[in-house]
Amino acid sequence: MVAERIRPSYLRLMPGAMRREPARIRAMIDMPDEAVVHFLKRTAFDGIDPSAVETATTHISLLLLGGDLVLKLKRPVRLAYLDFSTPSLRLAACHRELTLNRRTAPQLYTGVLRITRTADGTLRLGEDGESGDEGELVDAVVAMRRFDQATLLDRQAEAGLLDAPLMDRLAATIATFHRSLPADADKAGAARMRRVLDLNEASFAATGLFAADERAALDRRMRSHLARLSPLLDRRAAAGCVRRGHGDLHLRNICRIEGEPVLFDCLEFSEDLGTTDVLHDLAFLLMDLWHRGLEAEANRLMNRYLDHTHDEAGLAAMPFFMALRASVRAHVAATAAADAAASEAAAFRTTARRYYDLALDLLRPRDAVLVAVGGLSGSGKSSVAAALAARIGPRPGARTLSSDRLRKHRFGVSPETRLPEEAYGADVTAAVYGDLGQASVGTLGCGHAVIADATFERPDERERIAAVARAAGVAFVGLWLDVPADTLLRRVGARRGDPSDATPDIVRRQLERGPGAVTWTVVPGEGTPAMVAQRARAAVEAALGRDPVSRLPDPAPS
Hints:
Blueprint: H1 15-20, H2 22-27, H3 34-43, E1 54-57, E2 61-66, E3 69-74, E4 78-79, E5 82-83, H4 87-101, E6 109-117, E7 123-127, E8 136-145, H5 153-158, H6 164-180, H7 190-207, H8 212-238, E9 242-244, E10 254-257, E11 260-263, H9 271-274, E12 275-277, H10 278-291, H11 295-309, H12 318-339, H13 342-362, E13 369-374, H14 381-389, E14 399-402, H15 403-410, H16 426-445, E15 450-453, H17 459-472, E16 475-482, H18 485-493, H19 504-513, E17 521-524, H20 529-544
Parallel strand pairs: 13-15, 13-16, 14-15, 16-17
Antiparallel strand pairs: 1-2, 2-3, 3-8, 4-5, 6-7, 6-8, 9-12, 10-11
Helix pairs in contact: 6-11, 7-8, 7-12, 10-11, 10-12, 12-13, 14-20, 15-16, 16-17, 18-19
């Protein structure tokens, strides 16, 4: 259902202002006219008894739900960050919500309806702008199609249904959306983030949950990161990376329609809050996944998004962006705890603490490293790279650079599209390895970790990728997956829809040539993916002399 839930994020972004003048603010918070609500229940839901129409309330909205229809009324509120106090303002807000959400969910947002009162006092409901809509404007509603709550991605996450193909399609959906947006003319980069930090500081102080030294510790770290990142953020803003995005992009605001991910319920009431760096927009979803313990899913989503956008230059800001999103969630939950009944307050306080701790953890320094995963076709390189990535380097883990995907990008085709044999000539392969090295240099230069995924069949290819790490001044780990020939042939023969175009004949030629002297750490590649990933992780830890990141749960068998 479109709205049988209360959005917990930006609905309380100004608790400090609200708490300083609670009587004045609360006096201005009201519900839609009961006569209008009863009128809508009677007239808008064909064939449904008015008593069967359900209602749901958020901080700024009232929703009516019946059959396959949802009507969303704006509550007549005036707050520091929005004003719905008059019918004309609510009508304009409905149109803005419709326009913004139709960018990503046109199949859900059907139109704006206006309620007018005729000269004899009769209420009338009609589409805004249709002929005969004369009369006094009383209110307006956004009309939406209802959908099954089980298709919300937070529910799908709880059910363990966020698989790799879904993450790949979601990344493509978000990347396509971001690319479609015009750049913001303001060009504000660091200044925009500074305003959010100022808002956070006031909001945390108003909650009463966090001690002054705790608030100061987080604020100090956030501002230290912002000071370091300010030149980058300003360059990104000047380059057009600040856009009017979704603004509230987390799992509860994404559903599946006919199996495909659909973004909906964007932050519609504040252009300032909704306009931000596209990676900050994405960071909300990455943080939400990480908070739920779905680290591998967060890393995969980031990597597939970057496969589409090639925006690695912004990776230096990603831990800060994710921490900023977590800190907003922390003070929102803390505010909810202060307002909740005693039976619910403890859960909100626990949630606030978890987000606070997550924000601090996201800001913890982590070294950039370069891990190369090599082996003949079918040895499981991409599976190992994916299993390691979330555990290595700054959050949300390493950028995985695959020679297979880079080759497909060079030819302008999707990863699953098979290339002709000439795309695998010696000159093309050398160019692909050049692309891999160049992309690694750029990402490491941002302070982010890299996992390079390629066969690295020849000694000179292995030496060149190691040289990239030396030039960047970062630690290097080379892993060679050793798998028996019959297993390689069986795996490659069973592949379908894979970025690799390797065939059993290609594997046989690789075996005939041999890899030469392998000086990298040899990892046995037989067994379940979880077993091989654990061996690879142990090899990385041994090579670095430490666990490259704080310990995470071992990958599940697959």
